[in-house]
Amino acid sequence: MPAFLNDSFLHDDEALLHVSDLSIQRGYAVFDFFRTTNGVPFCMNDYLDRFYRSASEMHLSISKNKQELSEIVYELIKRSTYTDAGIRLMVTGGYSADGYHTAVPNLLIICHPVKLATQADYEKGLSVITYEYQRDLPQVKSINYLMAVWLHPLLKEKQADDILYFKNNIITEFPRANVFMVTRDKKLITPRRNILHGITRKNILSIATEMIEVEERDIAVDELLTVSEIFLTSTTKRVLPVTRLNDQIIGNSKPGEITSVLYKKFLEMEELVTKDQATGAVNPYSMP
Predict the structure, then answer these.
(1) Which of 12, 135, 225, 270 is deepest in the core (most CB within 10 A)?
(2) Is 136 helix (H, G, I), strand (E, B) or coil?
């Protein structure tokens, strides 16, 4: 797989970090991830903006500006053989002299095959359990997935697909996705606070405001039991319905009406944006 480390294009098995890097010593690094379709990055500008925000929040500087990063991404895509790829950008705390304080950050970008949720995944839906936990610095896309990985045995025990976090009885997010709900009076609601603001979330909100009343607000755990639809959004999952929550069936155990419409409209938007960029109708540095 092609990779880029600081100032050089490399093969991924050559893109190595020293053991003194704070990403290894203390898990101190931020990353972002987006995907391409037929070699065209989807909403790259939004992902790069979030990457820079996360780095700034963590007091890390990125040695390249946004256009330079974009050019590196396109070169990695060109060097790869993947029609559909995942682009992962990471900036680390650098080679720390004492394993505690930050140093000159390292920039690593890799391009690899990506697996997206399928139509079958969408139709099947997800079984989800809730768990009380709040991520540190939730507005930052850090590499800290300690709790999510630690909870894998619980997921296996409960035969669940994913975990929905809550804190003090207020729903927040999944480890790698945002959550939406449709109330019985046809309002779309999603948490506003203590979450990572996803790019797919942003697009779904933009689409939804044209067709349904939308609220970003606190959502109590108990309210989940009163809604008619629940779904999650993420870069690789796009839109996936939750059909079971803590052993309770949601809706009729199938994708709900609003979820289905939003899923279809998102796919249409994705196809249109990707096609426009491929033909030069949209500037890749000013993606929606």
Answers:
(1) 135
(2) coil
Q: Any idea what the CATH number is for the domain that residue 10 is in? A: 3.30.470.10
Which structural domain range is residue 59 located in? 2-113
Tell me the β-bridge partners of 10.
Answer: 3
d(CA 50, CA 109): 15
Same domain for 107 and 123, yes or no, is no
Per DSSP bridges, beta strands 162-167 and 170-171 are antiparallel
Backbone angles phi, psi at 235, to 5 degrees: -60, -45
Question: Are 126 and 78 members of one domain?
Answer: no
CB of 80 within 8 A of CB of 74? no
Q: Quick: pLDDT tens for 89-146.
A: 999 999 999 999 999 999 999 999 999 999 999 999 999 999 999 999 999 999 999 9
Phi and psi at 73, nearest 5°, equal -60, -45
